[in-house]
Amino acid sequence: MTSRSSFYWPMRLLPQAKRQAMFALYGFCRAADDISDGADDIAVKQAKLTTLRAALAAWSQTGIALHPAVAALAPFIRRFDLPVSELELLLDGMETDVNAPLTAPARRELRLYCRQVAGTVGILAIHIMGRPDAGTFALALAEALQLTNILRDVAEDARHGRLYLPHEDLHQAGIITPSPRAVLTHPALPRACMILHQAAEEKFTEAQAELARVGRRNLWPAVAMMAIYHALLLRLPRRDWTTPPPRLGHWHRLWIAVGAAIRLA
After folding, report:
1. Where are the domains of the chain?
2. What angle do CA 178, 184, 186 make, to 5 degrees?
3. Is CATH 3.10.450.40 what the domain over 83-264 is classified as, yes or no?
4. In angstroms, rounded to a whole number, what is the distance separating the alpha carbons of residues 110 and 130?
5. How many CA atoms lie within 13 A of 128 on its CB side?
6. How far is it, in rounded angstroms, from Cα 124 to Cα 1?
7. pTM over 0.85
8. Each residue of 11-56: pLDDT tens digit?
9. How far is CA 68 from each of CA 24, 79, 162, rounded to the nearest angstrom?
10. How many Å apart are CA 13 and CA 151, to the nearest integer?
11. CA gap 14, 132 in Å, rounded
């Protein structure tokens, strides 16, 4: 992971054991995501994901790690009691992207996808942070982050034949034919994006309310991610949705992460 990633500083500023665990978790997610988004044909991607899933199952049964991403994460699965079922659910989401990429899904389908590819990571991360009791907060925040990613990457996803904007939002905006490339040039695209933008705002608000309920102890990395991504969400409407998204600068992200650590110290 490079310092250009939004995740870098919230992870980098953790104590050593938790930092190593978070980087190992990121490595597992990155390995799965690279398969899903790679240039291989579908059959090869399916085989690679099957291999990764089999390696995870083999480690669970025998303690022998047959894949480097599993080997790197394995010590921390034990140390932080990480639920392997969440890693398996993450792979379900990656298989969805390979086998049947979402194209204008129903909102319920999008929520399931967010649970698979983002909620899983949130649940695993709060175990590493020592706050497995904060699951509702983690899931709300994870969905907010994933919706922000979807809005950020509308154009890039369309070029790969993917369209994560819910069909209810597209229809409400007046877009009837949800072809990824057609949506990208439709004059109502900004309206559809702003409907999902509001949904993302509501998830950030839900996460903030849940954080107030469970308390912030040990959760400052998640709070930093919330601040970084909310700042990004607020910047997204300032651009044409078909152009590369605005990015928070390296020092801006570091400042937000450090500020979160200081406020929660």
Report:
1. 83-264
2. 75
3. no
4. 29
5. 29
6. 18
7. yes
8. 666 788 999 999 999 999 999 999 998 889 999 999 999 999 999 9
9. 10, 18, 29
10. 28
11. 17
- Using 50, 70 and 90 to split pLDDT, how confident is the model at 2? very low
CA distance 80 to 106: 35
User: Counting beta carbons within 10 angstroms of the beta carbon of residue 155, is it exposed (0 to 12), middle (13 to 18) or buried (19 or more)?
Assistant: middle
Bin 63: left if φ > 0, else alpha if -120 < ψ < 50, else beta: left
Please, what sign has the CA dihedral across residues 143, 192, 228, 208? negative
Instruction: Find the helix packing angle between 84-99 and 120-128, rounded to 10°.
Output: 150
Residue of 204, 209, 207, 163 lying closest to 186 (CA atoms)? 163
Spatial distance between the Cα atoms of 33 and 117, rounded to a whole number of angstroms = 9
Residue 165 neighbours by CB distance under 10 Å = 27
- In whole angstroms, what is the distance from residue 43 CA to residue 186 CA? 33
pLDDT in tens, 71-81: 999 999 999 99
